[in-house]
Amino acid sequence: MTRLQCCIRGVLATGALLVAGLTSLNSAADVAPLSGAAPEIISDTWLNSPPKTMADLRGKVVLVEFWTFECWNCHNVEPYIKQWHARYADQGLQIITVHTPEFDRERNADNVRAYVKRAGIQYPVVLDNDFSNWNRYQNRFWPTLYLIDKRGNIRHVKIGEGDYAATEKRIGRLLAEAQ
After folding, report:
1. Fold of the domain built from segment(s) 36-178
2. What is the pLDDT of residues 126-168, one digit of tens each?
3. Could you tell me if 148 and 171 are in contact, meaning their C-beta atoms sit under 8 angstroms apart?
4. Distance from CA of residue 45 to its chain's centroid?
5. Does the pLDDT at position 111 exceed 90?
6. Mean of all residue pLDDT scores within the chain
7. Pairing between strand 93-99 and 36-37?
8. Contact indicator for 115, 32 with CB cutoff of 8 Å
9. Collapsing DSSP states into helix, strand and coil, what is residue 154?
């Protein structure tokens, strides 16, 4: 095989991988999000809060975020989550973030605690090292936001970054319904 043939094969293989990668990126739009009653969030380790059940949260609007502290997309969403917590917690918004690790170092509770402290996160953080909450919510992506109404039903799922204004409008509508 000539050097040119090797280069052509390499380019073709790279192109095939690129197309496969782009196809998988588009698959997020094809995911049928979980709907209906929100599953319980269960963990032995809750930071910034005692454990909460869905029954405890009735009457509140709940935003559940699945994230991990080394995910850059999660870092980009974090300022909005913090703003919504500051803006709407007194109006009945309860934010619960579920930290589901992607890498081994993210499984260490002390590393999560250190990140939460360094980042100034004040809302509940649930450690989900065994992916039990991830699986209960049928989640597949970091970050993913679930908006839950006052009756405990999932009303909106946002996968990934962006659409912050639309998400905030949904929060406002759900808070108005909860009044």
Report:
1. Glutaredoxin (3.40.30)
2. 999 999 999 999 999 999 999 999 999 999 999 999 999 999 9
3. no
4. 18
5. yes
6. 88
7. unpaired
8. no
9. strand
Reading the block at residue 7, the tokens are 């280069």
Instruction: Read off the amino acid at residue 22.
Output: L
Contacts of 151 (CB under 8 A, 6+ apart): 58
Which residue's structure tokens are 């709407």? 88
pLDDT in tens, 49-90: 999 999 999 999 999 999 999 999 999 999 999 999 999 999
Short-list 174, 140, 145, 165, CA closest to 65: 145
Q: Give me the sign of the Cα torsion angle 63, 68, 73, 76.
A: positive
* Count of all residues that appear for the chain in the document: 179
Q: Where exactly are the structural domains of the chain?
A: 1-30, 36-178
